[in-house]
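Worked Example 4.2. Consider the chain below.
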Amino acid sequence: MSIESQVYQIALKEHNANETNWSAPIYNSTDTQIHIETGAHLTFKKKSSLEQSQFTITGSQDGSFTTKSMSVQEVLRLSRYIDQYYMTTNYRKVIENQKWRELYQVTKRNFSYIDGELPGEEETDAIPCHSCGIVLPSYLITIDHTKPVSTGSDQAVLKVLRFTGGYLTHSGAHGTLYNALLNAGPIRIPTKRSVIRFEKEISYQKAKRYTLTDNGIIFLSTIISAAGEQGVINACMHSMINLRPFCSHCNPSKGNAMESLDGINTGIY
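Applying the procedure from the previous section yields the following structure tokens:
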């Protein structure tokens, strides 16, 4: 079930109830790590319409939070964005996603082969490695998580929230990938060696990019209460936003390249 659907179920149940006592923990971020905020809680505030009802955060241990709210309509809109790019845990299917194919220059190309002793040629789907640029048939390319499964689950969540455009982090997403997702036309992402200078120029923004705003705290707390921590991690870790193509030589995981693609790689996205 989609995150949007699970949020909607909570909102509908509480909106239809005579009295709502629903509450959930508050999730915040510090130094790219997500944690539960003690002394604060998330509640549901019923309005005349379901869409205008609100998820509300109140209180904190150090008094830094005042009462903040986000409408059900806005939470559902942002949830829909996350669902849209979730490739499921079978994340190699991202190769079939039309937008991802445009971004990473996936197209039919001719390849030479030797059949016995005779040369031949065959057209097949091909993808350039994001690091070295070598072009390979899609069945020989590996799909790598920008933020790795083994150690980067919190960073993956915060990264995808940043890409929603909902001002959920103190510094929003920018760069080629973000612009491409906003743009209706095709935009290609250059291979890694072409973006080294830009990566260094924006490194100072890292802390703000992984720090949640009040809206981000409300949104993350709401979707975790609806889909569970692992459900949110899966949707963000295996998001199209967090997946890139690598040849087996450049794939940082060096493990089971076609299945377990958990390598660390610092990108500009």
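Strands lie at 23-30, 33-45, 54-58, 68-71, 107-115, 118-128, 135-137, 142-145, 243-246. The chain has eight helices and nine strands. Compare this with Example 4.1 before moving on.
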